[in-house]
Amino acid sequence: MGKHRAHLVWDWNGTLLDDIGTVIEATNAAFEEIGLPPITLERYRELYCVPIPLFYERLLGRLPTEDEWAVMDGTFHRHYWTRADACGLTAGATELLAAAREFGRTQSLLSLAPHERLVPLVRRHGIEEWFVRVDGRTGHSASGKAEHMVRHLRALDGVPPERVVVIGDAADDAVAAAHVGARAVLYTGGSHSRASLETAGVPVVDTLAEAVAVAEDLIG
Q1: Structure pTM?
Q2: Which of 20, 119, 129, 210 has the fewest Cβ atoms surrounding its Cβ within 10 A?
Q3: Any idea what the Cα angle at residue 137 is, between residues 151 and 68, rounded to 5°?
Q4: How far apart are CA 183 and CA 174, in angstroms?
């Protein structure tokens, strides 16, 4: 791997995968199960946070009970994964990933989507070859990405944290980057509003092309 160009750690849901519409549909299906009214995209982006139970606390005014959490989590995933195959990549994603080699960048993918679900989707979209590593979540966890990022970077032989830029759509991506001494750029097309992302204290952009350009500037 190169020593001076940026290594990009891409997020999947809401970043490379344009799935926010499907996420809202699945979220509202989960809400319906416990009698909550549907949520709009704008409201979702205003309130969304990780870990997910805290997101539900913002909506309910309290943490969900164990039974409520089990119902909502199960319903969300059932609805989401029946629709995930129909989600496309974000505009320009394929071209940006393919161009990385030409510009001397390396890149990997780290997601909180289950690993066994993530890998087939990445392959189906024909982009696996552009990543030196693809990691999804293993086991059951509602926590954030920080500890997953630690393991991910350890597995990237020869990539120092100071050369890493995480590109994601959630404040948690910035938290995970800071946890390992890396940098982050946040994209507004996914789970958070711009105002919410700006509280993370890292660059916020409206396109993936901007994200890559800013990432190079951060390292350069």
Answers
A1: 0.94
A2: 129
A3: 135
A4: 7
Q: How far apart are CA 79 and CA 83, in angstroms?
A: 7
What spatial distance separates the first Cα and last Cα of the chain, rounded to whole Å? 16
8 A C-beta contact, residue 188 and residue 204? yes
Nearest C-alpha neighbor of 156 from the set 120, 109, 218, 98: 109
If you ran DSSP here, which 8-state letter would residue 100 be given?
Answer: T
Q: Give pLDDT tens digits for 6-36.
A: 999 999 999 999 999 999 999 999 999 999 9
Sign of the alpha-carbon torsion through 98, 183, 193, 62: positive
The helix/strand/coil state of 203 is coil
- What's the DSSP call for residue 130? G
Q: Answer whether 116's CB lies under 8 Å from 134's CB.
A: no
